[in-house]
Design goal:
single chain; 433 residues; alpha+beta; Aminopeptidase; Nonspecific Lipid-transfer Protein, Chain A; 3 domains; twelve-stranded mixed sheet; five-stranded mixed sheet; 17 strands; binds coenzyme A
């Protein structure tokens, strides 16, 4: 399916900025295998990954070729066909509080070659991406960041965290209730047909989650190179409830390093019910002959701690500001979610790039619905665009930002805002993109 954003021309303002520096900003025709392979090579080099083989490039083209794929080219470079900067973007579905989703402009593959850094190329790309997002009608932009110091200047802020959870498996016994249903091993190829529907329902529960694209499942399940050793080590299991309905799944691998040492590394554990969540964790923890279970990009608020006999056997590390969000259209973004208390707040937002700048009434009713419009009334809360992004999904309380000196307001109004913006579940994102 051709999306309008795939064919929208490269942003004219960024094209002009880059042309002034002798650079050409262009959309990559992802139907052209060579052009895509050069783009991918630059992208992978930017993240210090091995150069892609022709097979890998072709498989990546099949998985992510639907995205708007952009490169910056330097005609004076020794290899002018290889871009000196890359970015890709698409319209993703972002879960917001209230088990709803909204369109969000997902930005990925932001790289600038070390030969061309610190001369404003990333700035031209990011500003161009935000203008493109507005042109296609996306009310917010999202990304995951390699470094926490890059994106605040463009109005992005951490909006849904993630952490690594490690369990000292030999210390934990199961303390939760027994599951009513059953866990079934599935081959990666068999579960491939099932994961999308289960994941769609499971992701709707958690603000900050982003829909998975088909190629991500292929890669995660090892189906893009099924004969490699890594792929053959991937295991998958599905949980069916007592009525036989699939309610969750886990994808994992067991890494063995010494005769007695093994680690279950959980890639995805997605559950659409609490019961499925418990049953899948129990299944994972009951892998004997391993001493650790490690799961990356988990919630900072996992119920797991309350399901084992020794909660100190569970440690977290690599706490991360994982999902970054940039509000572009205040009324559409803020009215996409539901709220936890009825109220009428006036927010004055300072946005140097202009998109969200102004004063906004956020009126919420008892059912959680919001009505948002511009106003010239005096504001109860004054905040910057980054702070707005940080509170949008409910991951950071407005009062925390007030304590940090990053949001102004009468303490009573800020306390009301805390209640209003609270989310029913702790925001979290479980993938990199
Ligand atoms: C991050 C990266 C894309 C920046 O590219 P760049 O063209 O050198 O960036 P620019 O020259 O446009 O810099 C834009 C601004 O960001 C700042 N900046 C750029 N990279 C930064 C970094 N790694 N850390 C902190 N600040 C950074 C610049 O100082 C500049 O600030 P200013 O405009 O407020 O003065 C580039 O260093 C890169 O490719 N890094 C490796 C891959 C990566 O981490 N990509 C990000 C993926 S999420």
């Amino acid at each position: 399916m051709s999306e309008p954003y795939q064919t929208l021309p490269a942003d004219t303002a960024s094209t002009a900025v880059l042309a002034d520096r002798g650079l050409r900003y262009a959309l990559v025709d992802t139907a052209d295998a060579d052009a895509f392979a050069h783009w991918l090579g630059a992208d992978e080099r930017g993240f210090h990954a091995p150069a892609p083989t022709p097979d890998r490039a072709e498989s990546a083209r099949e998985r992510v070729g639907y995205r708007r794929t952009t490169g910056v080219y330097d005609g004076a470079a020794a290899e002018p066909e290889v871009p000196v900067a890359t970015v890709s973007s698409w319209v993703a579905q972002l879960t917001v509080p209230g088990e709803r989703t909204m369109d969000a402009w997902a930005i990925s593959s932001v790289t600038v070659a070390p030969t061309h850094r610190r001369r404003g190329i990333a700035r031209a790309l990011l500003e161009g991406e935000l203008r493109t997002a507005v042109a296609v009608g996306a009310p917010a932009a999202i990304l995951t960041a390699s470094e926490a110091t890059i994106y605040g200047r463009f109005g992005f802020a951490p909006a849904a965290p993630a952490t690594t959870v490690s369990v000292d498996r030999r210390r934990v016994g199961w303390a939760g209730p027994p599951p009513a249903g059953s866990v079934h091993f599935r081959s990666p190829a068999a579960i491939r047909d099932e994961v999308e529907a289960i994941a769609r329902r499971a992701l709707l529960r958690t603000p900050g989650e982003v829909d998975r694209w088909p190629g991500l499942w292929d890669r995660m399940l090892g189906l893009t190179d099924p004969t490699s050793e890594g792929s053959r080590g991937i295991r998958a299991a599905r949980y069916d409830d007592a009525e036989g309905h699939p309610r969750g799944f886990v994808v994992y691998a067991v890494k063995r390093s010494e005769p007695d040492h093994g680690t279950v590394v959980v890639d995805q554990l997605l559950a659409e019910t609490d019961e499925a969540y418990r049953a899948l964790w129990r299944f994972v923890l009951e892998h004997d002959f391993v001493d650790e279970v490690r799961a990356h990009l988990r919630s900072i608020d996992e119920p797991l701690r309350w399901m084992v006999s020794d909660p100190r056997a569970i440690t977290t590390s690599e706490y991360g500001d994982h999902l970054w969000l940039r509000v572009l259209d205040v009324p559409t973004t803020l009215s996409a979610r539901t709220y936890s208390a009825p109220s009428r707040l006036v927010l004055a937002v300072d946005d140097q790039l202009g998109y969200a700048h102004g004063s906004w009434v956020l009126e919420t009713d008892a059912s959680g619905r919001a009505f948002v419009h511009a106003t010239d009334e005096p504001a109860g809360i004054r905040l910057g665009i980054e702070e707005l992004g940080a509170i949008t999904l409910g991951a950071t309380r407005p009062s925390v930002l007030a304590s940090a000196g990053r949001l102004d307001g009468d303490p009573d109004v800020v306390a009301t805002a805390d209640r209003v913006f609270a989310a029913e579940r702790t925001p979290h994102l479980g993938i990199w993109f």
